[in-house]
């Protein structure tokens, strides 16, 4: 019986050229139609499948430039040193200083992570508890979980103190400075920032928009609160007729 040999060098060349490849591309390079044959050849090379795109992309660990979190992004394709999204989410939550809310983890991995976190909690691999109407995911190990919870509470306290300091600072500003400060805060809020800043500072949205525009254009009055001619017209002092 003739034994067909499939040299792994063809896979290495393909991945070195492209960085990533799909299974059909790997099969074509190896000259086989069997997925198991490709995986068997990839295994000793140290490979990873993407945790995005349904795991349809493959690369070699030697080609991936993992960051400090163990993640590597090739264009919009996501890879992890830990393999699957489930494993990656578990590691990142355990490593996080104050646990993770769903949006926080998704901002790191750049894919939807709600379902993965739910599965990890149901499987007893992560612990979750309510935090301000949402689930906070923490490490399963008790001591680590308590550390994360304490850190989360400290973050909230710091945030409350910062907002109180901002409110106090705002009351010390004149009319122009308040408008500019509200415009600056609206930029930090991002989308819908003008409305949020207007509600937070009790201003009209147009006033916030004006402050934002003045900051961005650099057209800020110096040494003057209002433009020349602004404000109420001066009242002419009447003199008694002689």
Question: Which terms summarize this structure?
Answer:
242 residues; mainly alpha; Arc Repressor Mutant, subunit A; 3 domains; 3-stranded antiparallel β-sheet; two-stranded antiparallel ribbon; 10 helices; 7 strands; 50% helix; elongated
Could you please describe the fold and organization of this structure?
With 242 residues, this protein is mainly α. The longest helix is centred in the middle third of the chain and has 30 residues, at 142-171. It contains ten helices and seven strands. The radius of gyration is 29 Å and the shape is elongated.
Q: Low-confidence segments, ≥5 residues, pLDDT <50? A: none
Shape: elongated
> What string, H for helix and E for strand, traces the elements in order?
HEHHEEEEHHHEEHHHH
Helix count?
10
Q: Ends: how far apart?
A: 132 Å
Give the helix/strand class: mainly alpha
The overall pLDDT, averaged over residues, is: 87
Q: How much β-strand is present in the residues?
A: 5-15%
Biggest sheet details: 3 strands, antiparallel
Radius of gyration: 29 Å
């Amino acid at each position: 019986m003739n034994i067909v040999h499939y040299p792994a060098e063809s896979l290495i060349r393909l991945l070195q050229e492209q960085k990533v490849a799909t299974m059909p591309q790997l099969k074509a390079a190896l000259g086989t139609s069997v997925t198991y044959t490709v995986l068997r050849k990839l295994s000793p090379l140290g490979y990873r499948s993407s945790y995005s795109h349904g795991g349809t992309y493959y690369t070699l660990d030697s080609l991936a430039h993992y960051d400090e979190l163990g993640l590597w992004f090739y264009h919009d394709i996501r890879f992890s040193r830990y393999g699957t999204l489930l494993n990656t989410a578990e590691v990142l939550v355990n490593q996080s200083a104050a646990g993770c809310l769903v949006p926080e983890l998704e901002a790191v991995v750049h894919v939807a992570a709600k379902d993965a976190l739910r599965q990890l909690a149901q499987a007893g691999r992560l612990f979750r508890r309510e935090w301000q109407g949402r689930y906070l995911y923490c490490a399963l190990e008790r001591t680590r979980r308590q550390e994360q919870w304490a850190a989360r509470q400290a973050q909230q306290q710091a945030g409350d103190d910062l907002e109180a300091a901002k409110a106090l600072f705002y009351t010390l500003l004149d009319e122009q400075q308040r408008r500019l400060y509200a415009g600056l805060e609206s930029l930090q809020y991002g989308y819908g920032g003008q409305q949020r800043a207007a509600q937070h500072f009790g201003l009209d949205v147009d006033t916030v928009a004006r402050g934002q525009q003045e900051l961005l254009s650099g057209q800020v009055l110096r040494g003057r609160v209002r433009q020349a001619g602004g404000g109420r017209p001066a009242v002419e002092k009447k003199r008694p007729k002689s």
